[in-house]
Amino acid sequence: MVCLENGNIERLVHYFLIHENDYIQVMEGRENPIQHIINIQSFSRGEIDRILDRAAQLEPIAHGGVSDIMAGRILATLFYEPSTRTRLSFDVAMKRLGGNVIDFGPTEGSSVAKGENLADTISVMGGYADAIVLRHPREGAARMASEFSSVPVINAGDGAGQHPTQTLLDLYTIRKESKLNKVKIAIVGDLKYGRTVYSLAHALSMYNAEIYLVAPDQLRMPDSMKRDLVNKGARITETGNPDDVIGVVDVLYITRIQKERFPDPSEYQAVAGSYKITEETLKDVKDDLIIMHPLPRVGEIDPGVDKSRHAVYFKQSFYGVPVRMAILSMVME
Amino acid sequence: MKQENQPENRELRVRRIQNGTVIDHIAAGQALNVLRILGITDRSTEVLSVVMNVSDRKKDIVKIEDRELNPGEVDEIALISPDAIINIIRDYKVVEKYKVILPSEIEGVVRCMNPNCITNTDEPVKPRFTIHRGDGVELHCMYCRRIITDRIADFLI
Ligand SMILES: [Zn+2]
Q: Which residue in B118, B125, B142 has the most chain A C-beta atoms within 10 A of its own C-beta, making it the best mutation to test that interface?
């Protein structure tokens, strides 16, 4: 469906497919037809499937193909806290699609560094760019930005809140490397502060996943979140011991365990030790188990695991590009 | 509402007011917060009576003379006391009686309890919540999605 060369008929079909969706979008929310990407909870399963389908179509371009889908378009990136990996992933996605990127980061002398508020910065940027990627330390920043923006806002993380493009690339990885429907997944590590865990669990519950939450006592998912997930139909089992579940799951999703979360360094050492994934840990796992990690890792997975067929975390990181291509093309086309 | 039990009717009759408002069926313990919503302080001149923990600690009652409530005040009372009943009194008679209605959404009334929420900054944005009624009243922040379930009165602006 994607036009790598001059496939004019394909292009026309592609155009109609996309614009049919746009039409629905406009009809549903007449006063605000701009499509923002703020949180994963606002997407239906069908909408997520559409994004993942589009990402699959665009993946060849992410591998080094050429496209002009975004030719003449400008994406602005605005990162109030550093996240080089996420910013570069958007940058690459836009450029691979033939578009341009301007960075509005808080560099010395910029209006952002001078203390201009987010609302004003967003209002100004809407005049320069066709879409804005925003990373901000405050929860709800992206939602507020969308209210001031004349162009689509894509949330690239707001505080401990939402990071929908990470969730979508996680879903894409699971769909591609394992299976999304009724997947058995263990989410392991910091389930208390980890920003993406709740969103991922929420999205997976739409696919009838069986979710095992594996965390040390200090880092268990807060009860309010668990209750919320269960109310939304999630099937959840909790344990403190990774060995309980490692043999039965299709996906092992490992998150960073940060030293700062532990008042006592020896407590951290103990937890980090018992949660570390090594070749030894993987002796009795399913043949087609996949191991994911949002990266960067800090010792949760031994480098010896990297060569195993189970390790997909570097692919997962790469899949951020086609998934962000899909999102960019959907909000700007 | 005609089948009110006798003691309550007596209660209204005992402390009859000529003109004003009787707020009945306030959740027990919330009367002082109702006064706060109405902007009544130690310097206010309104004649009022406050009865707390009536009918075996089940409810509070507030009576204010010569004052009728505006819709914004009624909405706020609904947040902390969703079963409250407003009686408007004119010339010693109840001329209007209605139960407060919990609004589905509020803006600029309650601040978000999450200190890291964008609404707790200098940005030009008012806190907004959608309101859900489960066991009690739940406020869901439309920005950070944090849920306020108890001590809502502490967060009134
Ligand atoms: Zn909030």
A: B118
Separation of CA B151 and ligand 1 centre (Å): 16
Shortest Cα distance, chain B CAs vs residue A210, angstroms: 25
Which token pair is A152?
A: 């689509």
Gap between the Cα atoms of A299 and A293, Å rounded: 11
The one-character DSSP state at A161 is S
Minimal Cβ distance to B125: which of A39, A144, A161: A144
Between CA B153 and CA B157 the distance in angstroms is: 9
What angle, rounded to 10 degrees, do the helices at A141-148 and A118-125 form? 50
Question: pTM here?
Answer: 0.84
DSSP characters over B28-82: TT-HHHHHHHTT--TT----EEEEEEHHHHTEEEEEEET----HHHHHHHHHH-T
CA A45 to chain centre: 15
Mean pLDDT in order along chain A per 10 residues (333 residues): 39 40 39 81 95 98 94 96 92 97 77 83 94 95 96 93 93 98 95 84 94 93 87 91 94 90 85 89 94 92 96 97 97 90
Report the alpha-carbon distance of residue A254 to residue A275 in Å, rounded. 9
The residue type at B74: V
Contacts of residue A226, defined as CB under 8 A and 6 or more positions apart, other chains included, come to A213, A236, A238
